[in-house]
Amino acid sequence: MLILGLETSCDETAAAAVGDDADFACRIRANRVASQLVEHKPYGGVVPEIAARAHLDKLDDLIRLALDDAKITLGDLDGIAATSGPGLIGGVMVGAMTGKSIAAVRNLPFIAVNHLEAHALTVRLTNDITFPYLLLLVSGGHCQLLLVKGVGAYRLLGTTIDDAAGECFDKGAKLLGLDYPGGPAIERAAAQGNPKAFDLPRPMLGRAGCDFSFSGLKTALRQLAATHQPSPSFVADAAASLQATIADILYDRARNAFGILAEENEKPTALVAAGGVASNNAIRTRLTKLAGENRVPFVAPPAALCTDNGAMVAWAGIERLRLGLKDGLDFAARPRWPLDPSAREARG
Ligand code: KG4
Ligand code: ZN
To answer: Is 279 a pocket residue for ligand 1 (Cβ < 6 Å)?
Structure first.
């Protein structure tokens, strides 16, 4: 099976061709990502209208490049998968419409992919992971703990009551005068700093349940930045302290998730992290420790597959199509689309 995957839900335009080869190393035939960093940098964050227009400008060329990389034509495909929500609706519409148009013209199955499901299933593209697994989904718009029971079968264990972890990195970086996107900038600055330099608040820490909160942390960082000269050593120490604090919060909440599952005699096969923030090495280290304490492996996709990409969308398309799941060309793009509709609606 060979699927084209399109991703346009935030600030990366992406197209990828992915197969379901038994050999994991052969699956990704092409994976093109065009970042909109330059377009959004002057604003210090993603501007939805600029994003939608940039997706429209870039997507056709990216698809052509991805097909060339894979040395295939549209005629070789078994289906088209496009992120159809949740996300910035203008961009989501660009990808979904493009995917539906190709599917209509080539008479191919169309798979409307939930962006969060694409992040959630990426480890099955890269590793031999079986259901159920405990997933920490941490990105710019989302911060959730989920039990992944199967394709389309998710149980939300906890979510953020205010900001997402990625937002906390991005806003923290802005306060410290670092580049956008903030996560990688904080990680680089933190490498020179002392993670114990500042004792920042850890909202929700030690409380029952698995919900997250980051807004108090952000406020504390704002006060810290306002009362210090932005010398390189201050910025490095503040970045290292922020990163360590976020890692502590994620560790604490995920530990509670293991506790809840153990009480129910539910045995996850692995602790999995996905989404842009999962590419952070300090966070990976903490989660590896937690997984070890719970006698399961810690698995996260390589950094390039943690941040938004088309390969994860194509793979989610493969997982769904294998089960006979496809969508009509009347599928409407969704700004919100929770993975676990039975839980209270998650932010973002
Ligand atoms: O998954 P993603 O590419 O897009 C969304 O779906 O949101 O995640 C982007 C987020 C941004 O907030 C970015 O700052 C964060 O992931 N991020 C990181 C790192 N790389 C990206 N956060 C911490 N450390 C990193 N190395
Ligand atoms: Zn994402």
So the answer is: yes
Answer for the pair 113, 321: CB distance below 8 angstroms, yes or no.
no
What ligand 1 atom has the least distance to the C-alpha of 164? 12
What's domain 132-300's superfamily in CATH?
Answer: ATPase, nucleotide binding domain (3.30.420.40)
Q: Where does CATH 3.30.420.40 sit in the chain?
A: 2-122+305-322, 132-300
Instruction: Tell me which residues of the chain have a pLDDT lower than 50.
Output: 346-348
Q: What whole-number distance in Å separates Cα of residue 66 and Cα of residue 62?
A: 6
For residues 318 and 78, what is the distance between their CA atoms, to the nearest angstrom?
A: 9
Residue 328 alpha carbon to ligand 1 centre in Å: 32
Pairing outcome for strands 133-138 and 271-274: parallel
Give the model confidence (pLDDT) of 305-339 as tens digits. 999 999 999 999 999 999 999 999 999 999 999 99
The CB of 169 under 6 Å from ligand 1? The reply is: yes
Domain 2-122+305-322 has CATH 3.90.1310.10: no
Residues 215-244: tens digit of each pLDDT: 999 999 999 999 999 999 999 999 999 999
Whose CA is closest to atom 21 on ligand 1?
276
Measured from the Cα of 11, ligand 1's closest atom is 4
